[in-house]
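Hi Y.,

Following your request, here is the sequence exactly as I used it, all 164 residues.
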Amino acid sequence: MKQIFESDQISFVKVSECLVNDYLIMVNDEEHVGRFIHGRIGGASEPYTVEQEYEWIRKTLESKAVVFSMLEKRSGAFIGNIELMNPNNYDAELGIALTAAKQDMGYGTEAVSAMVAYGFHTLGLKRVFLRTNHDNARAIHVYKNCGFQEYDRTDQHICMEIKR
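Below is the corresponding structure, written out as tokens. Let me know if you'd prefer a different format.
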């Protein structure tokens, strides 16, 4: 797998078919991850299939989306995926999912900080924003620790941003 950049404990690599089983475990974990994934909010859907994951990988690579899989440098273990969605000359929306086995270990904070720095310094962004569920206390804590500030609320989401 080709490393694109790294932080202290994380290698950020292109998404890869060799991680398809790790992706499936993560996205189909309804309790820890699946309920927070866009499109699944408000209730579980059918589990993602191997075919759907391969299609997601293909589309992600073809579109040159700013999506990275994260691997623990020490062990090579899968941590999760992180993305800057719809980047333009000014901003992009941040999305992150960590596999349950790697939550509460500091990887979220490190990954978000590294991805924001990548967006600002490599992509030239001026703003990174996100939406998170009101009940996602772990994520809200991470985002605040990384310097994100709330700028709006809806019935379902808290909207946060960080500016360069």
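Confidence is low (pLDDT under 50) at residues 39-44.

Thanks again,
Q.
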